Amino acid sequence: LEMVGDMFDRSHKVSSRKRILIIITDGKIYDPDVLGPARAVLDQEQVQTFGIVLRRQSGHTKADTDAEATLKPITSDPHDDHFKNLQIDEVASQVFADICDPNGAWGHLIVTQTNQPGQSGLHRPCDHY
Length: 129
Hints:
Blueprint: H1 2-7, E1 20-25, H2 35-44, E2 48-55, H3 62-71, E3 83-87, H4 91-94, H5 107-110
């Protein structure tokens, strides 16, 4: 995550772009001691962080719940809104299909309203980020 924080450094920032990070894992994160400082850098750089735990089965295994316990705390607040525990086949339909839709599960957290004269309240599509 430290390298990701560097990638989002303000000196490289395009002012009109949203800064989104999606972390995907299929197992427990084994270096949780670095997550707090990394989360602080992402907050400082105004990076909205989402997390996905990929499951192989429909049921939740101990490995899935361990992965959730380490990943969820490093997602943006509110954590429950920025986190999903999904089977691998569900990712396309439950995350990426509506990520730019203001009515989507994560889309409403990403898509912003314009503040330009004559366009107040209109949602900007993802290609404008």
